[in-house]
Write a structure and sequence with these properties.
By secondary structure, this protein is an all-alpha fold. The protein is built from 15 helices and no strands. The chain is about 75% helix and about 0% strand.
């Protein structure tokens, strides 16, 4: 089922379609969940908790999701994970706390990640991974654009106001202006689950090992250490961990910035957030076309520039200028992270298995996200100003990238300079 350098197998495009629909639904869900928190008049610091809730299982279940993805046909694992997301929307419709609903969706997403990325390494040869990651990143970020726009639409006045039948209130159905949007989300997640049934079996099979939690945890830490000790694996994982943390936190900072500096309500701030993804698509496509896998390490210093450009948010006062800045930030991030991600996938697949290497990658990258989101939640609870928040965030990003560049300088500096 491997592809040649000139074409991709049909199974890859099915996987691409599933990724598009699922990611679109995830991003729309986050916007609707934030709107629900605001509708319930809960504290502002609960908003970053939504993002933390969507991420925490990537870290907690990391020792188990990789072996699980390798133990079954990965398409079926993706069906089950999307079914959990459907359950999460049903819980939101039933009136449960949006944080609990998004935690359930996060559980499904944690199971989904090693399966989808593992399938990519099983369907494609190493020579196609950068190109495939470019397609994948382009589809993912396009769905982020559309998903954030759809999320903004789902909480806007353009959507008709629906009400539960009066007799349903006795079963706990909530009064909410977001009912129509929640029903659309339910349909999107159900569609993603149905498309997963069409993913073919790659035919890859792995040795069955002990499924005892202690044995799985011990093996996971050995595999985690193995990938970190590997020079190329440690370098690429350091870079992608920082970038994932940046992306998750910047997503929330942009919403606050659009409100305080540009006067945009949540639904329009979501549109501005989505504009960033246009740049990511452009950067990802350029990287997939012009960056070879063995040259990916040369892009490492680009992360320093990314940290330096973030404070420019504070001098932007118009929506068009803000959109241009977000496109530039997105393009730099896309051009940087796609080759690094492909390099990490290839090295992880070489040292481990596809599912286990993606689980290790997810543990570290989402751990970075949790750390930065926890800092952001603390800063929000302390009511720090937007200026302090942006400069502090940019400083953390720059410091982290300096440490990565110094630690792995032999991989990106010219030979004559070392």
């Amino acid at each position: 089922m491997n592809a040649t350098s000139s074409s991709m197998p049909r199974a890859f495009y099915v996987l691409l379609a599933v990724q598009f629909v699922s990611t679109l639904a995830d991003n729309a869900f986050l916007i609707v969940a934030i709107a629900r928190v605001l509708e319930l008049a809960e504290a502002d610091w609960r908003i970053p908790l939504l993002k933390i809730g969507a991420t925490v299982f990537y870290v907690v279940l990391a020792p188990f999701v990789g072996p699980l993805a390798d133990a079954f046909p990965k398409g079926r694992v993706m069906v089950a994970s999307n079914a959990m997301k459907v359950c999460a929307i049903l819980l939101l419709l039933a009136g449960v706390d949006p944080l609990f609903a998004i935690i359930v969706a996060g559980l499904g997403a944690a199971l989904y990640a090693p399966a989808k990325y593992g399938l990519m390494t099983e369907f494609l040869p190493p020579s196609d991974l950068v190109r495939a990651n470019g397609f994948f990143e382009g589809a993912t970020v396009s769905s982020v654009i559309i998903g954030t726009v759809v999320g903004g639409f789902l909480i806007s006045a353009f959507l008709p106001v629906l009400h539960w039948p009066a007799q349903w209130h006795s079963f706990g159905a909530p009064d909410t202006a977001l009912l129509a949007g929640m029903l659309v989300l339910l349909g999107l997640n159900a569609l993603a689950m149905v498309v997963c049934f069409t993913i073919p079996d790659s035919g890859a099979r792995y040795a069955r090992d002990s499924i005892h939690p202690r044995a799985l945890t011990a093996r996971f830490w050995r595999e985690n250490s193995l990938l970190w000790r590997d020079a190329v694996g440690g370098m690429s994982m350091s870079a992608t961990t920082v970038l994932w943390g940046v992306g998750a936190t910047l997503q929330l900072i942009v919403l606050r910035w659009s409100d305080e500096s540009l006067g945009l309500p949540l639904e329009k701030g979501a549109y501005l957030q989505g504009v960033t993804a246009f740049g990511v698509v452009a950067g990802a496509m350029l990287a997939s076309r012009f960056v070879a896998l063995n040259h990916a390490a040369r892009l490492l210093p680009m992360g320093l520039v990314l940290g330096g450009i973030i404070p420019l948010m504070l001098v932007v006062e118009s929506v068009p200028a803000a959109a241009l800045l977000m496109v530039a930030v997105g393009a730099m991030a896309g051009f940087f992270v796609v080759p690094m991600n492909a390099l990490l996938q290839h090295r992880g697949y070489t040292l481990l298995t596809s599912g286990r290497s993606i689980a290790v990658q997810g543990f570290n990258e989402n751990g970075g996200m949790l750390l930065m989101l926890a800092v952001y939640a603390g800063a929000t609870a302390m009511q720090l100003s937007l200026n302090v928040l942006v400069f502090g965030f940019a400083g953390l990003v720059s410091l982290a990238m300096v440490m990565v560049c110094v630690s792995y300088r032999e991989h990106w500096l010219p030979r004559s300079a070392t």
